[in-house]
Amino acid sequence: MEITLETIVFAVLALFTTVNAVLAVTTRRILRAATYLLFVLFGTAGIYFQLNYSFLGAVQLLIYAGGITVLYVFSILLTSSEGDMAKHLKGYKLVAGLIATCLGLGVCLYITLRHDFLPSHFEHGELSVRTIGHALMSSGKFGYVLPFEVISLLLLACIVGGILIARKR
Questions:
Q1: Which end of the chain has a smaller Cβ tally under 10 Å, C or N?
Q2: What CATH number did the domain enclosing 57 receive?
Q3: Boundaries of domain holding 48
Q4: What is 55-123 written as a DSSP string?
């Protein structure tokens, strides 16, 4: 296997994303976890851009790294008090988490080792913006208008709920 600049960049992005993902779930401070999640989303967007999926990379940066992370931080700051830290896990929860982690790692390794991910199987590039726009705004069988509206109502309910919780204090 030839080591190219593309391989090195992918390895750096994958390592960056993995380290921040582990830090996001192991830190005891919730605001730090949200910050690590932001870095995970940046790393994922970098991988999208490397695969030449600029639309998905831009959506990842704008919607998830921008909007959703700001919503998380806003909710955390409204609902948590000074010095909130996660409690230590009890023994059975730690064992259940380790078992789930090992099972997930086993499934990932099985899929990775049993399949050939040859470059000829993947087509780099993306669809035209017109095609993506018609698919997103279509109300037909494979359209995304209804899920988009449902998610917007869910986010609105979360914001209103966060404000109500903050006002009760």
A1: N
A2: 1.20.120.1200
A3: 5-89
A4: HHHHHIIIIIIIIIHHHHHHHHHHHPPTT--PPPPPHHHHHHHHHHHHHHHHHHHHHHHHS---GGG--
